[in-house]
Amino acid sequence: MTTNSPPASNMAQETNDVHFADDGTVNERSFMVHWPRKHKKWVQMLVYTIFVLFGQSVATIMGRLYFNKGGNSIWLLTLVQTVGFPALVPFLLISPVQTSNDANAEKPKSLVLALLYVFLGVFLAALCVLYSIGLLYLPVSTYSLICASQLGFNAIFAYFLNQQKFTPYIMNSIFILTLSTVLLVFQNNSGESMNTSKGKYAFGFICTICASAGYALLLSLTQLSYRIVVKDESFRAVVAMIIYQSMVSSLVITIGLFASGDWKRLRAEMMKFELGNVAYVMILVSKAVCWQIFSIGTLGLIFKVSCLFSNVVSTVGLPIVPILAVVFFHEEINGVKMVSMVMAIWGFLSYMYQH
Question: Which of 71, 126, 142 has its CA nearest to residue 284?
């Protein structure tokens, strides 16, 4: 099964191909044939959107739960963000290879693809480390709000790398999202609520900002690489990118895990985990699976629309995580966080309005 969507010109042709009877009514048979094709892309976009929102929200909550109940290994939590890729191998095996309509189309060389996967994989590993540090030192509600700044970064990178045009609504969105993030700097009780010093809070804040900017760049580079190098928009290409990129990232992070000596403390950490050994394993496994679901949704939206739209959908999940944090972790949504959340949603709606 492939998820190839017809280009806009083909979709327009499909609409024009719908025949009308002499009395002006639509030929029902023709309509029924072309309707599924016309709306296939929208169904795929909906599925990918659900993957992004579900995977992102649950994975973030699982990460915070891991730290709250006794986990303290940054390298382990980083590893589970990418190590779940073997679960996608069956999808790669059952997905047929796409045949190009252009007989003269040149397939990318294996060495070029390998170098691309290595570069993106190492880049992803570095970002995962930064995200884990941010989640360790910040309340999950603050962490998720800062992550919303990646939409602004993505708009800038998409302008230079993906020929994304700026509109007044995008400019307004960037300004509002940036301002909503800056507001979080002035919180006085965030570090105290988690028994962390102001220095660690600032360090987590900087790491999360850098990770958000880096992830925005990664999305733009991914879209650029598929347009220039891969030249394939099939479901198989989506899964292959996730598997090989995650494989490289997992290898790099595993090296960091052993080089830091963190692996020696994992057994003792599991035995002392407040919710028990089984819960310890289940939290890590569920987080790993959710990040793979998120990755499928993210890359799928990049293929079907753009890297910027993929990031916009990720920002839709902004209000979800703080609400879940209040329910499960009893975090306080103070006035600054509330204003920041409202401004972030405002920035998102400003972007969506242009569409």
Answer: 71
User: Phi and psi dihedrals of 203, rounded to 5?
Assistant: -65, -45
Q: Which residues, other chains included, contact 283 with Cβ-Cβ below 8 Å and sequence gap of 6+?
A: 62, 65, 66, 275
Instruction: Report helix, strand or coil for 20.
Output: strand
The answer for 19, left when phi > 0, alpha when psi is -120 to 50, beta otherwise, is beta
* SS3 call for 95: coil
* Structure confidence at residue 89 (pLDDT): 87
Please tell me the distance from the alpha carbon of residue 342 to that of residue 179, in angstroms, as a whole number.
11
In 3D, which of 43, 45, 47, 52 has the Cα closest to residue 318? Answer: 52
Question: Which of 208, 245, 207, 210 has the alpha carbon at shortest distance from 226?
Answer: 245
250: its two tokens? 């997992």
For residue 128, give both structure tokens: 């995962």
Output phi, psi for 99, to 5 deg: -100, 125
Regions of the chain with pLDDT less than 50: 1-26, 28-33, 35, 103, 189-193
Report the sign of the C-alpha dihedral through residues 225, 226, 231, 236, in that order.
positive
The dihedrals phi and psi of 20, each to the nearest 5 degrees, come to -115, 145
**Assigned token pair, 67:** 């730290």
> What is the pLDDT, as a whole number, of residue 263?
92
Enter the tokens of residue 173: 């969105």
Torsion of CA 49, 4, 151, 168, to 10 degrees: -110
Global pTM reads 0.75
Give 315's contacts (C-beta < 8 A, 6+ positions apart).
Answer: 148, 150, 151, 177, 344, 347, 348
CA 269 – CA 168 distance, rounded (Å): 51
